[in-house]
Amino acid sequence: MSPNSAYEGAGAWRRKNGNCIEALRKALERLGYLKCYHMMSASVENPPDCLMWHDALIAKYNGVGEFGRKEWDQLLGDCQAVCDWPACAFAKELIEAYPNAKIILTTRDVDSWHASVMKTVWWRVSDPEHRFISNFSWAASMYYPMLNKFFQTFFRGDFLTKGKQVYEDHVAEVRSLVPPERLLEYKISDGWGPLCEFLGEEVPDTPFPRGNDMADFFQRCRTRNRHQMMNATLQALTIGGAILATGLAATIMFKRFSR
To answer: Could you give the count of Cα atoms lying within 13 Å of 248 in the half-sphere of its Cβ?
Structure first.
């Protein structure tokens, strides 16, 4: 797939839905869409992507700068599919940028979705430990501002009370933007059948993938916090040691030549 056809495969539009979206990503990769962009592509695999996502959010919601096909190709050009957030905030822009994309709109009971996000990503953006680490960690300093900006803009500044309405509006918007022949409304419980038929792929002879559970999400986040804090501390010690060594060397030289 060429760099300019990132969405010729499948675009899966849905804000964070825990293990469901992770399962869909694994399923798309099993079907051969090996470069499937996901939230973790930015938060873990390549944190500098968060800077571009932040620029995209500012361009869309604050009207500062431009973010069009050129920028999307730069960010997603080597991908065959995209799912999860922050991409879901740009359903309209990406559908217009890649008009041949097939769109998978995963759906779920809005109340259970809201409860799931409250216990996962909303917890992450509200996590004081994560906020603190973002002041020191290279990766967290790029990821946390983008995560915070996403919730402030996409969820209209109030996820707790407006999140469900944003969900409903998002589903309605995608339905209005995509012709029926290019849109699959899908539940993870539907399994391989509808997904493979929609994408024109053979049904694999393996069970449909399972996503990570909530306990795993918490463990991964806590482990990442610890690693980022350790890396920041090690970097500070290294820089501090180098400054101390330079200072000692300068003092010794000064004393030697001032005799």
So the answer is: 6
Which pLDDT does position 67 carry in this prediction? Answer: 96
Question: What pTM, to 2 d.p., does this model score?
Answer: 0.78
Range of the domain at 248: 217-258
Q: Specify if 29 maps to a domain.
A: yes
CATH of the domain at 45: 3.40.50.300
Burial (Cβ within 10 Å: 0-12, 13-18, ≥19) of residue 201: middle
Work out the angle between the directed axes of helices 214-257 and 138-154 (0-180°, nearest 10). Answer: 130
CA angle 182, 80, 145 (to 5 degrees): 105
The H-or-E segment that residue 81 falls in is strand 81-83
Q: Please report how many Cα atoms fall inside a 13 Å half-sphere around the Cα of residue 181, on the Cβ side.
A: 2
| CA-based nearest residue to 82, from 97, 104, 59, 60 | 104
Percent of the chain with pLDDT over 70: 74
Whether 57 and 149 have beta carbons less than 8 Å apart is answered as yes
Enter the tokens of residue 15.
């804000």
Classify 79 as helix, strand or coil: coil
CA 152 to CA 32: how far, in whole Å?
35
Q: How many domains does the chain have?
A: 2
Q: How many CB atoms lie within 10 A of CB 233?
A: 12
The pLDDT-based confidence of 166 (bands split at 50, 70, 90) is very high
Task: Copy the structure tokens of residue 37.
Answer: 């962009």
Distance CA 36, CA 53 (A): 16
